[in-house]
Amino acid sequence: MENYFGGDTRRIDHAHSVTDFVEQLLKSEVGDYAVVIAAGLLHDIGIHNAEKKYNSNSGKYQEIEGPPVAREILSRLKRPSAEIDEVCQIIAHHHSPGKNESSNFKILCDADWLVNLKDEFDLNDKARLKSIIQKVFLTDSGRALASRIYVV
After folding, report:
1. Is the pLDDT at 152 greater than 80, yes or no?
2. What are the φ and ψ backbone dihedral angles of 138, each rounded to 5 degrees?
3. What confidence score (pLDDT) does residue 81 get?
4. Where are the domains of the chain?
5. Exposure letters 128-138 (e unless 16+ CB within 10 A, then b)
6. Is-above-0.90 flag for pTM?
7. Minimal CA–CA distance to 135: which of 113, 116, 150?
8. Which of 97, 136, 108 is nearest to 39 (CA)?
9. Confidence category of residue 83, pLDDT binned at 50, 70, 90
């Protein structure tokens, strides 16, 4: 991921921050460590291609462009095919969750929200923030951690 992003420290730092939260969530949520860590590091790996191809870093374009790049990186690392498939599936819709998502998916999404919440919403409106946390977070652990970090 770091080699792929080169000097883009903003994207590298984001991936590391999300992965740090993944590790915290895995202490209380059941998930496949290898899958969720890889998804944490690679979830936004398609952002450069999205910017080049669509002139946008929109999540829907990252979901299109990310899986092929992630598959190439994970294949070079000789990760098991089932692991690669699941990581790519998570990346392919981490900005547009559906119902009945896997615990691995939920952990990744919550970790991403833990990093992005401060950029997406007004943190001063505590009542609204509590409502948003209940709505966007997919795990009890994610909601609890977000509440501790942002609402206090």
Report:
1. no
2. -105, -15
3. 98
4. 2-151
5. ebeebbeebbb
6. yes
7. 113
8. 108
9. very high
Which two structure tokens, joined as six digits, stand for 57?
A: 């870093």
92, amino acid identity: A
CATH superfamily of 2-151: Hypothetical protein af1432 (1.10.3210.10)
- Record the tokens describing residue 94, joined without a space: 């981490």
Map the chain to HEC letters.
CHHHHCCCHHHHHHHHHHHHHHHHHCCCCCCCHHHHHHHHHHCCCCHHHHHHHHCCCCHHHHHHHHHHHHHHHHHHCCCCHHHHHHHHHHHHCCCCCCCCCCHHHHHHHHHHHHHHHHHHCCCCCHHHHHHHHHHHCCCHHHHHHHHHHHHC
- Report the C-alpha gap between 69 and 65 in whole angstroms: 7
Say which range, 5-14, 87-96, 116-125, has the weakest mean pLDDT: 116-125
